[in-house]
Amino acid sequence: MAKRLDDCPAQNCSAGAGRQSELRPPYYAEIPEASREKIEARTKNGVFDVPILRCTYCGCVYGKFPVRRHIFGWLDNSVTGEKWSDSREL
Predict the structure, then answer these.
(1) Over the stretch 30-84, which tens digit does the pLDDT of each residue have?
(2) pLDDT reported for residue 15
(3) Taking the model in full, what pTM does it have?
(4) CA 23-60-83 angle, 5° bins
(5) For position 42, what pLDDT does the model report?
(6) Cα 79 to Cα 68: distance, rounded to the nearest angstrom
(7) Residues whose CB falls within 8 Å of the CB of residue 77, separated by 6 or more in sequence, listed in order
(8) CA–CA separation, 84 vs 73, rounded Å?
(9) pLDDT of res. 47
(10) 88 conformational bin, left if phi > 0, alpha if psi -120 to 50, beta if neither
(11) Are 41 and 49 within 8 A, CB to CB?
(12) What is residue 43's predicted lDDT score, i.e. its pLDDT?
């Protein structure tokens, strides 16, 4: 089954729109500063701010760009046991 735009963009995650939420400040603070700077460089372009979302199922953190979603990494992923893991795309 094809993923919808509101589903988690991670290929190995089956969570739908109901498991996606805005990345709240306490979670954002857990991401290392170097990674936060890269995320901010991609999401704040002076014209509009791209919403940053987090899948509550797999921990995928991504930008919801108008045309596509861009995965930044995974936060508090119980599968990997890591607090934060950068995506290769970051």
Answers:
(1) 999 999 999 988 887 766 788 999 998 899 999 988 777 889 999 986 656 678 9
(2) 83
(3) 0.83
(4) 85
(5) 86
(6) 25
(7) 58, 59, 85
(8) 7
(9) 67
(10) alpha
(11) no
(12) 85
What SS3 string covers the chain? Answer: CCCCCCCCCCCCCCCCHHHEEECCHHHHCCCCHHHHHHHHHHHECCCCECCEEEECCCCEEEEECCCCEEEEEEEEECCCCEEEEECCCC
Q: Is 73 exposed, middle or buried (0-12, 13-18, 19+ CB in 10 A)?
A: buried
pLDDT: which is higher, 46 or 22 = 22
- Least Cα distance to 39 among 73, 13, 14, 15 occurs for 73
Amino acid found at 82: E
What pairing do the DSSP bridges indicate for beta strands 60-64 and 69-77? antiparallel
Query: Which residue shows structure tokens 């190995």?
Result: 12
Question: Given a cut of 90, is residue 3 above it in pLDDT?
Answer: no
